[in-house]
Design a protein that fits this description.
The chain is mostly helical. It has two domains: 69 residues, Winged helix-like DNA-binding domain superfamily/Winged helix DNA-binding domain (Arc Repressor Mutant, subunit A, Orthogonal Bundle); 138 residues, GntR ligand-binding domain-like (Four Helix Bundle (Hemerythrin (Met), subunit A)), CATH 1.20.120. It has a two-stranded antiparallel ribbon. This is FadR family transcriptional regulator. GO terms for molecular function: DNA binding; DNA-binding transcription factor activity.
């Protein structure tokens, strides 16, 4: 392990470095990490920073620490794959095609139903915020950080508009999936397909309180994103 480059709080930066190495396979599942003292010396950090970083990784299901046995990398099925930070780390490298497929299957299960519900339950303020996010996407473009943030907000407001607290609790995960798949396809493709027309169709359906049209528009939008991401992975 090399000396840590400071990016925000030291424990968060260390957790990210180790986390990325785990989810991209550079540190394999089942392996044992160096001890706290060794990591601290290698990185030029205090043991308390290392300990806090390992706690963060443990909370995400990536590692488990036991007295005398050390810190072991857990098997993939034990990871909290919907953790927004873990999703971000997955896209630091080349995410496995199977993982991307699973991610879009999840979106196709959740988002069309959420859009259908939002179309009949949204209020005027939520609709106004969706419209503002949509215009910010158009103004900045999805190739920019501001545009991707607006895209993530647009989808999060749809979940919020369902009024279902369990769906709202998925906002962090769904929002992260939208953000990182969009970033990945723009990073990997010079001229990705423009998804603004489909976003506008979805917004119009919700504005018209047309639940069936909102569901259909969401399926088209998510399917298009899946195709674009898979095409980027194949390059």
């Amino acid at each position: 392990m090399t000396t840590l480059q400071r990016r925000g709080p030291a424990h968060s930066a260390l957790a990210r470095d180790i986390g990325v190495a785990i989810v991209t396979g550079r540190i394999p599942t089942g392996s044992t990490l160096p001890g706290e003292v060794d990591i601290a010396e290698q990185r030029g950090l205090s043991r308390s920073v290392v300990r806090e970083a390992l706690r963060m990784l443990s909370a995400k299901g990536l590692v488990v620490s036991k007295p005398k046995a050390g810190t072991r990398v857990r098997e993939r099925h034990e990871w909290n794959l919907l953790d927004p930070e873990l999703l971000a780390w997955m896209f630091e490298g080349e995410p496995p095609a199977g993982f991307v497929q699973s991610l879009f299957q999840l979106r196709l299960i959740v988002e069309p139903a959420a859009a259908e519900l939002a179309a009949v339950k949204r209020d005027t303020r939520q609709l106004s915020r969706m419209g503002a996010a949509l215009e910010a996407m158009a103004d900045h473009g999805l190739h920019t950080e501001q545009g991707r943030a607006a895209d993530q907000l647009f989808h999060n407001i749809i979940l919020e508009a369902t009024g279902n607290e369990l769906l709202v609790s998925l906002s962090g995960s769904i929002g992260a999936a939208v953000h990182w798949t969009t970033l990945y396809k723009h990073r990997s493709t010079k001229l990705p397909r423009d998804s603004m027309p489909e976003h506008r169709q979805l917004f119009a359906a919700i504005a018209d309180s047309d639940a069936a049209a909102a569901r259909a528009a969401t399926i088209v939008l998510v399917d298009q994103a899946r195709e674009d991401t898979e095409r980027a992975l194949a390059r």
